[in-house]
């Protein structure tokens, strides 16, 4: 465990806290993509499917349970909560997210970390996580104004991935000098998807304006 990974994990956790805070306090999921949240459920389930057979540490186990539990809870709120589900922007959340699943799985079969079921599912989760934010970004582009909690959630989610790239670089130079091509390239691709959002987020924060993304 190094500082970059710890801060990255806490940033990821904070992004989820911000999203749950938005849903719980405002009873609204406006501006949040259910498609992206469903993809994250699949990401965490496939990555941590063998949670009970591969113990690493208490910290690692707790974080796995938190990410699985919170991702399922968010989807439940958006689909089934009698008040929250009425605020879901279904007409604007139209990205065909299922088109991202099959290519990610095929890529995991063709370029896995190792040729066994655990590693193929892990690799699949890495590839899928890299593109899972796409429905959310498309939804934000279609929204005229983005509320602060939604903007902060997406910003923290992107910052977490950027911090993880620093974590991998640190591990390469300081710990084992191993090149982890799959998470590195997937992480860079994922961070690149946030570049446009980061620009407008920082610009709106600097100018104290409502966040808006160009169509």
Automatic annotation (TrEMBL):
Keywords: Endoplasmic reticulum, ER-Golgi transport, Membrane, Protein transport, Receptor, Transmembrane, Transmembrane helix, Transport
GO CC term (a single one): endoplasmic reticulum membrane
Gene Ontology BP term (one): protein transport
TM ranges: 62-78, 98-115, 121-140, 152-170, 182-202
Record flagged with keyword Transmembrane helix: yes
GO MF terms, alphabetically ordered: ER retention sequence binding
Coiled-coil regions listed in the entry: none
Cellular compartment(s): Endoplasmic reticulum membrane
Keyword Lipid biosynthesis: no
InterPro entries: ER_ret_rcpt
Topology in membrane: Multi-pass membrane protein
Pfam families reported for this sequence: ER_lumen_recept
Recorded family membership: Belongs to the ERD2 family.
Protein's UniProt name: ER lumen protein-retaining receptor
Species annotation: Citrus x changshan-huyou
């Amino acid at each position: 465990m190094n500082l970059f990974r710890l801060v990255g994990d806490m940033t990821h956790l904070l992004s989820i806290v911000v999203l749950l805070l938005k849903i719980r306090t405002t009873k609204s999921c406006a501006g949040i993509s259910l498609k992206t949240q469903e993809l994250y459920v699949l990401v965490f389930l496939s990555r941590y499917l063998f949670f009970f057979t591969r113990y690493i540490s208490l910290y690692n186990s707790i974080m796995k349970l938190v990410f699985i539990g919170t991702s399922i809870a968010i989807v439940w709120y958006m689909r089934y909560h009698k008040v929250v589900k009425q605020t879901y922007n279904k007409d604007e959340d139209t990205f065909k997210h299922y088109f991202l699943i099959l290519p990610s799985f095929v890529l995991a079969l063709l370029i896995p970390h190792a040729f066994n079921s655990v590693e193929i599912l892990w690799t699949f989760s890495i590839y899928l996580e890299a593109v899972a934010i796409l429905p959310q970004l498309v939804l934000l582009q279609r929204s005229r104004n983005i509320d602060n909690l939604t903007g902060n959630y997406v910003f923290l989610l992107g910052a977490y991935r950027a911090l993880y790239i620093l974590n991998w670089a640190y591990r390469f130079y300081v710990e084992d000098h191993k090149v982890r091509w799959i998470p590195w390239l997937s992480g860079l691709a994922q961070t690149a998807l946030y570049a446009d959002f980061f620009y407008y987020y920082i610009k709106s924060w600097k100018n104290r304006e409502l966040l808006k993304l160009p169509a």
